[in-house]
């Protein structure tokens, strides 16, 4: 059994939402059970569940939990409270808008639960397609560098950038994966290294500061990352440090690829300048696992996402096709294509 089959970050069972507590990985595999939407909102805010698609899916289940309370006022509070948990990943607003449309069309608690389950199943299917399409775009017989965690833990299952990695490795196209540790929350070290190791995919962990030297070495054939929001002009918001990787990749002629489902595309935000960038607490920089690593009273700036300009993106891999050098025209075309049509 692969890790993809085994890892379930978000799932519904016996009338409860189960969330794998990602704050405790890789040392402890512990699930939080949610029966109220407020618990789900807290779990998203506190990073029990994280990763753009997984946040959207968890929020959709949160709405389904709220609907069980049979109070329109509570449901309205749930829509508002869940939307306010984290600002950058557009999948959150996308999933909530879909749940609202279902509710407005008359869905009861059971039908809203079914809608949340559909959102999750569709995300897994999109990831599988992204993986298959993206694998063909990786130069064969080389390593890839990735950032943050974009795997089963960050999605409905399988993964976006890690979906590409999984598919490419299965097809024999990949020598190994370099995972940047992803300071300060260490998604690369704690989550990506764990997921890939569990799948038997060769993975080497690097400090974020080692990335430029690695790209200069010539071993890496492509950088593959996910996204929290792709603006209408192709600018990409993703985990802090992504922009630096894109700059270093361009300097060394290494293709920089972004893998994301259509639910991550935001036609309503013209460019990266309009994407809200979350900043988190100083404690994330001041300590690791409870151990102080800086003077406690030092001033801190902790933006947890950055924006990579579209001109640095060599390809955007979606379930509807792979777009080279994405721009406003290409994004419009992707979003307006009929669902079944694939962009060549
Ligand atoms: C498929 S996940 C894509 C992104 O959400 C991922 O790269 C990322 O930046 C996650 O950030 P996080 O702060 O861990 O939620």
TrEMBL record:
Q: Which reaction does it catalyse?
A: 5-deoxy-alpha-D-ribose 1-phosphate = 5-deoxy-D-ribulose 1-phosphate; 5-(methylsulfanyl)-alpha-D-ribose 1-phosphate = 5-(methylsulfanyl)-D-ribulose 1-phosphate
Q: Where is this site: Transition state stabilizer?
A: 148
E.C. code: 5.3.1.23
**Record's keyword annotation contains Amino-acid biosynthesis:** yes
Going by the UniProt record, its keywords in alphabetical order are: Amino-acid biosynthesis, Isomerase, Methionine biosynthesis
The text of the family note is: Belongs to the EIF-2B alpha/beta/delta subunits family. MtnA subfamily.
In its UniProt entry, what is this protein called? Methylthioribose-1-phosphate isomerase
Q: Which organism is it from?
A: Sediminicurvatus halobius
